[in-house]
């Protein structure tokens, strides 16, 4: 990467405070690389170098920076400088920046906008959080079905610089109802005298402004599009959502699922931007819940302390059994959470999927149970071998069933299936695995 290759040179220029040479050095850098450089600098140097950027670049560089750095820079700028940045930011990037700020600061910044940008910003901020409306931009190109290709191309040339993307051209009627979405190549490859209505196929994918932003991710992936039109309930075209915003959403959702699968409340900001207390707060809740749930395991051991005392070898296998059950359940849950998230598996498939995982669980349990039987023979004799082998088969089967059904249940209850996290599955299997273990031990030792 450019910043890594020339970092010693940049550091030397900053240490010498040779701002003119530094400005010249980064003048031809790509926008993302400049933003990355600024993110790696101290707060004071970040502001100095940001002010050295050409006015034509500062809004775009600002859009690429993380929220904390954006806030720090915004605090150091005059109202006129801030107005310039907000005015020149893409509407969707501006919305993302403003929604992260406290309401009082957002209102102050909104007052810096001209009437047109203010209407645009307040309209986008008026949509629910995590809705497609917050992601969309009103900068697109629309044509009428009665126009000729030549008229359309002139319109595209005139309006193209203001559009977020030129890949797709949208066809609307006089009421702005969306009629079609056509690729630019349709206009380039057809004759100038052809009408738009002649090349329309009336087939297009769209999303509603009030849809969850995850719907935009799945729709864009399903139809393999780089931009999607955003409509209201009456089909009126409100804006478009582009692949760069959707990729950001996909990354955020994947990160959120990773956090939940680890028993962590999702972070609102990046790890570096989150304070120590914030990290503590996001983790302590789940840990305390799991501690309380784990008390059930202690209760099970307490209830069967006599059988445990009569065959002390049983204690040797407790970590092996409950650890294996937790791992097997976490595997099944991970597969189901991902399959549900990608629509590979739907709610209606729950019975078929559970049946498949029962077979997998029996196969896994049989192999692992045989291994445990051999260990049981070596460490405790035939009785212990039977107990440990049978328990392994039973708990692996149960772990697979629970790990499969729990994500389906959470999805049915309109909850995030990622909550079926590895720590939760492992804790459930601790208590249930011990019940099975000591139950089988009581039956076997009581009958031999």
How many helices? The count is 24
Note poorly predicted spans.
Answer: none
Name of the CATH homologous superfamily of the largest domain: SLC41 divalent cation transporters, integral membrane domain
Q: Specify Rg, calculated over alpha carbons.
A: 30 Å
The ordered string of helix (H) and strand (E) elements is HHHHHHHHHHHHEHEEHHEHEEHHHHHHHH
Summarize the entry for a quick read.
The chain has helices spanning 2-5, 7-16, 19-26, 31-40, 43-52, 55-64, 67-76, 79-88, 91-99, 103-110, 115-125, 132-135, 149-159, 184-189, 196-199, 213-223, 243-261, 276-303, 305-310, 313-316, 318-341, 350-380, 382-412, 422-447; strands at 142-143, 168-172, 178-183, 207-208, 227-231, 237-242. With 448 residues, the chain is mostly helical. Helix 4 (31-40) packs across helix 6, helix 16 packs across helix 17 and helix 21 packs across helix 24 (422-447).
Indicate the topology.
Elements: H1 2-5, H2 7-16, H3 19-26, H4 31-40, H5 43-52, H6 55-64, H7 67-76, H8 79-88, H9 91-99, H10 103-110, H11 115-125, H12 132-135, E1 142-143, H13 149-159, E2 168-172, E3 178-183, H14 184-189, H15 196-199, E4 207-208, H16 213-223, E5 227-231, E6 237-242, H17 243-261, H18 276-303, H19 305-310, H20 313-316, H21 318-341, H22 350-380, H23 382-412, H24 422-447
Parallel strand pairs: 1-2, 4-5
Antiparallel strand pairs: 2-3, 5-6
Keywords:
448 residues; mainly alpha; MgtE N-terminal fold; CBS-domain; Tetracycline Repressor, domain 2; three-stranded mixed β-sheet; 6 strands; elongated
């Amino acid at each position: 990467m450019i910043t890594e290759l020339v970092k010693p040179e940049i550091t030397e220029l900053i240490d010498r405070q040779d701002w003119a040479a530094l400005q010249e050095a980064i003048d031809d850098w790509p926008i993302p690389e400049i933003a990355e450089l600024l993110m790696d600098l101290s707060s004071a140097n970040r502001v100095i170098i940001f002010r050295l950027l050409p006015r034509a670049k500062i809004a775009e560089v600002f859009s690429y920076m993380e929220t904390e750095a954006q806030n720090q820079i915004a605090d150091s700028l005059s109202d006129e400088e801030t107005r310039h940045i907000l005015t020149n930011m893409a509407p969707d990037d501006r919305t993302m920046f403003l929604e992260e700020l406290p309401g009082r600061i957002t209102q102050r910044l909104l007052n810096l906008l001209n009437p047109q940008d203010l209407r645009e910003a307040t309209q986008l901020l008026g949509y629910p959080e995590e809705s497609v409306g917050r992601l969309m931009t009103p900068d697109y190109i629309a044509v009428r079905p009665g126009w000729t290709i030549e008229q359309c191309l002139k319109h595209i040339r005139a309006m193209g610089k203001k559009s977020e993307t030129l890949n797709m051209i949208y066809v609307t009627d006089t009421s702005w109802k969306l009629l079609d979405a056509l690729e630019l190549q349709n206009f380039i490859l057809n004759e100038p005298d052809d009408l738009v209505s002649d090349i329309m196929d009336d087939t297009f994918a769209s999303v509603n402004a009030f849809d969850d932003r995850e719907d935009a991710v799945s729709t864009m992936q399903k139809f393999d599009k780089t931009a999607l039109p955003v409509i209201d309930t009456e089909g009126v075209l409100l804006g478009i959502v582009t692949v760069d915003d959707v990729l950001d959403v996909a990354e955020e959702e994947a990160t959120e699922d990773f956090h939940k699968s680890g028993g962590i409340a999702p972070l609102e900001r990046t790890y570096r931007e989150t304070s120590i207390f914030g990290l503590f707060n996001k983790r302590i809740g789940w840990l305390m819940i799991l501690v309380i749930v784990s008390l059930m395991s202690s209760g099970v051991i307490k209830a069967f302390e006599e059988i445990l005392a009569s065959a002390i070898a049983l204690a040797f296998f407790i970590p092996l059994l409950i650890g294996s059950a937790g791992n097997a359940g976490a595997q099944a849950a991970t597969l189901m959470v991902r399959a549900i998230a990608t629509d590979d598996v739907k709610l209606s498939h729950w019975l078929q999927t559970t049946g498949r995982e029962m077979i997998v669980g029996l196969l896994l349990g049989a192999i692992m149970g045989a291994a445990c039987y051999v260990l049981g023979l070596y460490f405790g004799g035939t009785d212990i071998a039977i107990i440990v082998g049978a328990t392994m088969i039973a708990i692996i089967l149960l772990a697979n069933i629970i790990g499969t059904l729990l994500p389906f249940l959470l999805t049915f209850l309109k909850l995030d299936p990622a909550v079926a996290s590895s720590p939760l599955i492992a804790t459930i299997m601790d208590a249930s695995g011990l019940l099975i273990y000591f139950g089988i031990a009581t039956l076997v030792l009581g009958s031999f």
